[in-house]
TrEMBL record:
Protein name: Uncharacterized protein
Pfam families per record: AAA_33 (PF13671)
Classification via InterPro entries: P-loop_NTPase (IPR027417)
Organism: Amycolatopsis taiwanensis
Taxonomic classification: Bacteria, Bacillati, Actinomycetota, Actinomycetes, Pseudonocardiales
Length: 101
């Protein structure tokens, strides 16, 4: 799915429009990949980092899990903790590679 969305995003960039990638980009190699491809098309690239404390994320997920909307799958505390260990926070040297908002 992500690949199809990126292909579409590239087409939109070619039209000169703005694109928002609304998926994880949790690792530096992922961020480097998309930034490099967008820059190759002369696009400006801004990185917005949402890095909430794990306790805040757990409170939000608990409310989401409790609401149990149809089609929503439960995310456990253990799954959240596993996922949080995969996130590579951008360091200052990486942030300097992006354009200001």
């Amino acid at each position: 799915m992500e690949r199809v969305q990126w292909t579409t995003a590239l087409r939109v960039l070619l039209l000169g429009c703005n694109v928002v990638l609304d998926w994880g980009l949790w690792s530096r190699p992922e961020r480097d990949h998309y930034r490099t491809q967008a820059r190759a098309m002369s696009a400006s690239v801004v990185l917005c980092v949402l890095d909430s404390p794990i306790e805040e994320l757990w409170q939000r997920l608990s409310r989401r899990n409790h609401a149990a909307q149809p089609g929503t799958f439960e995310i456990t505390r253990a799954a959240l903790e596993r996922a949080s260990r995969l996130f590579q926070r951008p360091e200052p040297d990486e942030l300097a590679l992006f354009d200001p908002l």
